[in-house]
Known about the structure:
Helix content: 10-25%
Strand order of the largest sheet: 1-2-3
Shape: elongated
Amino acid sequence: MKQFFAEIFIWWHKQTFGIRVRTMFKGEFVGTDELGNDYYHHKKNDKQRWVIYNGPAEASAIAPGWHGWIHNRVDRAPTKDNYKPYSWQKPHQPNMSGTANAYRPQGSLLKSGKRAKVSADYDAWSPK
Length: 128
């Protein structure tokens, strides 16, 4: 019952009630990625694709192999191609902006140290 009310009122978690109904009647399961997200496409139109996230709906939480498929850049799902990620493809990390774990470069207001001088630094004009 809790999940049902969450689907009605909380759009950013897993799926909405509308997506549940669409998936039941018009969706065909394609596969699951290593993050636990489930991927579907329309039974009659393969170009209509959607994902049901395993947790909060965060667009960056789509695995690299599924990214091309969900955006219609490739026609075959990674489950059909035995997809292996490239060495340069990194595992998902959530966006940490606004948290204590956010990236803060050396010399920023919230981190100690002095910022390194760069060539584009401003030099004040002074008359001669």
